[in-house]
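// run 5 | inverse folding | seed 20
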């Protein structure tokens, strides 16, 4: 194990000792004393069995595991539309090994791609807490000995894990659906978006390009938060090995799901290979997720999600840990928006089995995890395939394309490209793996906004035709739910293409598609929490320095100290946003995961 990786792991273990101990005590008590199927009253059991006829006798006999399926199916979200038949098939596959399966509950699964730039996006981050609560409700019946989580996209996987970890005595496997086949290349799609932003093409051409890119069932093919989720589940050992990026509708996809059901039935408390989720997700697994994130140039959203997942398991990870890991972990993948290839190209070049094998052999990942697949993480360095009619795994071999995937001995960059920025504006994060080196330092006058739509209007009016640091505040979790500001990418990219020095500074999120424009995001404290980002005025010189890790307003210190904080209008209503007022009020800071439910629970 690389000394720097081990040092961060030890730091997290030491910091988490009390909270992790309390968590392990909780799940042990739950295992011993929680409501469970054999102890339920007859009327309770009758209610639980009333919805099934084929499995009722098996359930009454209590002779095998009953698997609770928590599904995020809907057919508005392409990644989750593939789950339509999964429960039906999983019940059949459970019977093959003497188990049963029931749909324990559904969780919401909103699509950030649909709500991006509109009021519904202000529900996005808190949908994660809602999903966690929904997962807890689904598993609260005490009728399941294991859980299968069907979820893929941005807030869904973190939310499922946060909820399931509070039932950490149950063995749990996450089951992905896979990415859609490649359509219009992401680079070509981005080019049309920029042409539209410049007024060089119309809405009809833009819509046609978008439909060609997002054209069928399956996960979007760029390497954003959804696909980063799947990478992380592999690095943590919570999938069947190599399941992340196999396309829907294939024999291999089906056999991996079947194998997951069979495996789940074998790792329950009644067997000799008990693998509860709360023990699988330990400090080493969290570090592995962070290392995978950095080594592959994954989504900045996980600077929020990973701390929240960890907290649900009694583990405390902060941005300093991420910064230290980033300095030690090489970047070995280039997938759009950090490269030209999509996740299908990444999979064809070797995918996660190549990444895991390389990082294990290089000493960057912890091998000794309690994985759901059995053994340790070594199995996740092998690629699944169908040989004859059987599912098997084999060595992925060398990279199939070194413009996409490289060995750790010849990385694209010696570090992972995520950094902490600190200064008189506060504490923020930046992802530089897709940013040209000459743009890592930007010094320019500020233009301050409180709404992303006002930025778009200023761009259209030609008011940003200069070197500029666009500051968008009152975008934090307490203000408006911390929506992604991804719609700003095309206009800021256009300004940068015109030769201007451009950067974004915000207490909001950018997205898993953070790209070529330097963005200081998740500024903390946020403006509504008396953060100094609220002191910035139009014309202040702002210096963003990703080389030295600083973010400052170049204002006389005495004047800066004396300045009043801006007051934002944060009253929201419509699109159901008023129903989430409690979440906005209770949300904690971005570095802790921006979660209302974890904060309220004292976790």
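// decoded
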């Amino acid at each position: 194990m690389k000394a720097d990786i081990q040092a961060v792991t030890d730091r997290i273990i030491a910091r988490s000792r009390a909270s992790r101990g309390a968590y392990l005590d909780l799940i042990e008590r739950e295992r011993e004393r929680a409501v469970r199927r054999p102890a339920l009253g007859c009327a309770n059991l009758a209610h639980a069995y009333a919805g099934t006829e084929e499995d009722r006798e098996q359930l009454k006999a209590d002779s095998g595991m009953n698997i609770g399926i928590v599904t995020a199916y809907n057919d508005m979200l392409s990644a989750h539309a593939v789950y339509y038949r999964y429960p039906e098939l999983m019940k059949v596959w459970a019977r093959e090994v003497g188990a049963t399966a029931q749909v324990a509950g559904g969780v919401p699964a909103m699509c950030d791609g649909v709500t991006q730039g509109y009021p519904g996006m202000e529900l996005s981050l808190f949908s994660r807490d809602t999903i966690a609560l929904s997962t807890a409700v689904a598993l609260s019946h005490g009728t399941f000995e294991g859980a299968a989580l069907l979820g893929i996209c941005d807030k869904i996987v973190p939310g499922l894990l946060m909820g399931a970890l509070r039932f950490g005595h149950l063995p749990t496997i996450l089951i992905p659906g896979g990415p859609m086949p490649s359509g219009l290349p992401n680079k070509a799609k981005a080019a049309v978006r920029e042409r539209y932003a410049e007024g060089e093409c119309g809405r009809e051409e833009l819509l046609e390009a978008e439909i060609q890119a997002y054209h069928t069932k399956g996960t979007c093919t760029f390497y954003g938060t959804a696909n980063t989720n799947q990478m992380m589940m592999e690095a943590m050992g919570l999938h069947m090995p190599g399941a992340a990026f196999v396309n829907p509708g294939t024999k291999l996809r089906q056999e991996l799901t079947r194998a997951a059901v069979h495996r789940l039935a074998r790792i329950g408390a009644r067997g000799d290979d008990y693998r509860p989720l709360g023990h699988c997700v330990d400090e080493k697994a969290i570090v592995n997720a962070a290392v995978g994130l950095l080594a592959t140039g994954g989504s900045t959203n996980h600077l929020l999600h990973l701390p929240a997942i960890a907290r649900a398991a009694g583990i405390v990870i902060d941005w300093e840990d991420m910064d230290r890991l980033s300095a030690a972990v090489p970047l070995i993948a280039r997938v759009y928006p950090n490269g030209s290839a999509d996740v299908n190209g990444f999979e064809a070049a070797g995918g996660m089995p190549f990444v895991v094998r390389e990082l294990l052999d290089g000493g960057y990942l912890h091998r000794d995890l309690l994985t759901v697949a059995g053994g340790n993480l070594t199995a996740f360095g092998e690629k699944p395939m169908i040989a004859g009619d059987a599912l098997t795994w084999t060595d992925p071999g060398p990279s199939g394309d070194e413009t996409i995937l490289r060995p750790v001995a010849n990385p694209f960059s010696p570090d992972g490209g995520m950094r902490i920025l600190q200064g008189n504006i506060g504490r923020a994060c930046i992802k530089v793996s897709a940013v040209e080196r000459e743009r890592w330092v930007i010094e320019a006058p500020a233009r301050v906004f409180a709404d992303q739509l006002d930025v778009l209007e200023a761009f259209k009016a030609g008011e940003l035709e200069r070197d500029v640091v666009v500051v968008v505040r009152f975008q934090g979790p307490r203000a408006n739910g911390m929506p992604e500001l991804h719609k700003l990418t095309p206009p800021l990219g256009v300004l940068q293409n015109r030769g201007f020095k451009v950067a974004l500074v915000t207490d909001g999120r950018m997205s898993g598609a953070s790209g070529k424009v330097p963005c200081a995001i998740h500024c903390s404290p946020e403006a509504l929490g008396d953060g100094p980002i609220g002191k910035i005025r139009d014309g202040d010189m702002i210096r963003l320095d990703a080389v030295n890790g600083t973010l400052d307003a170049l204002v006389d210190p005495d004047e800066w100290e004396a300045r009043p904080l801006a007051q934002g209008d944060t009253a929201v209503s419509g699109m159901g946003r008023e129903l989430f007022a409690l979440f906005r009020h209770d949300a904690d800071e971005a570095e802790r995961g921006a979660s209302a439910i974890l904060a309220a629970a004292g976790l």
